[in-house]
Amino acid sequence: MTSGAPPPDPDENSARPSGDSAGPSGDKELSARERHELDELRHRVSALESGGPRAAARHHWLRSTGSVLLILLASLLSLLAVVSVWANSIVRDTDRYVATVGPLASNPDVQKAITNRVTTAVLAQVDVEALVKELQQAADQKGVPPKAAQLIDNLDGPIESGLKSLVSATVERVVSSDAFDRVWVNANRSAHSALDKALTGEADGAVSVKDGQVAIDVGPIVAQVKDRLVSAGFQPAALIPAVHTEFVVFASKDVGKIKWYMRVLEIIGSWLPIIAVLIAAAGVYLAVHRRRALIWAALGVFAAMLLLGITLSLLRTVYLDHLPAGTSEAAAGAVYDSLVKFLRAGVRAVGALALVTAIGAFLTGPSHVAVLVRTGCGKGIGALRGVSVSAGLRLGAVGRFVHRYKRWIGWAILAVAAIVLFTWNYPTTAVVLWTVVIVLAAFAIREFLDTGDDTGDDDGGAAPMPSA
Fold first, then answer.
1. Is the pTM of this model over 0.85?
2. Can you give the residue ranges of every domain in the chain?
């Protein structure tokens, strides 16, 4: 067509008869079979276009539902994982067990309860009536006047009261001494080997489980009190036989169920945390919006730790309300607090880690607050880098390397932090917070070293800062 030719009539195609052998584009007329196939293809394309969004929405709904279920399961398992690690440490780690029960030796409420228990055990071995009878016989032999003899007959009460005061004071001195701390710690260290059997109800030795009670034999304390009484001149104490009396560490009618649960948690204690992390990771990976899913997964774990902390406080109240008659509530509360001390520490550590993870995931997102924080930090680090470059710092190959592998360096920092937390025997809240501080410092150093240019420029700050 020449440049001066008029444009084709748009209605020309419609004006052509259907029997023409060629259209304006030169295509031949479609056969009946080809037209049928074309109509079928058009029908399929139309069906796909109309059903595509619905199928995609259904696919997203399934992914979102699966992600939510996995995250909820991981949150529940994180709660059980913290309890299982605690139970496993109490059973298998002697130092951990001693660190748990050791402070009880210096607890005033526990000392008072042990003093009362040992005093009762010692007095039960002293025959006050026999002492009064010996005194009466001695008075008769020496010809004591009748009024004095009558007074001696009524000395049962005063002698028993004075004897109780003497024994109680002696026991209190023993229990409050440094020697008792050593005896208590050594006894519990030696008894730890029997704790596994105690939790299964098969213990025989320093630790026992019977009649719904977990008890420790404090007979050696009675022996020390006996020696001190004899040294103080109370010779009848020499007749006190070897006494095996028990101090109840834990008492509950449901101890049978508890020891079964503890046994199960002990068996799975090493694997449950890993399983919980893997399920949470699967839930995040399955989600349509993974960063948002990571935030909810972290908040779910934090909520689980909050629930566990509240539950421990409620269980303390329930436990103290169901103590057997005659049990010291103050001592039982001190024992409970000591036993769950490291469990509470684990709850706080995991909760802090979950909260930090949620905040970190939020700050990497597109929200106005997150962008503002990242921009502010980036400008501050960039200004510091600019001042350093002006003072003569040349990043050179280091800056180019960091810029080229910036994302991999970030993943390496997070991987090292995760390895540290997972391999730390019993990470505390302080360990978690210090790890976070070190990670933030490492990311700041990475940002400082990133010149934003991998072409060989050594000015160390001229290029704009890339996104993380």
1. no
2. 90-263, 368-449
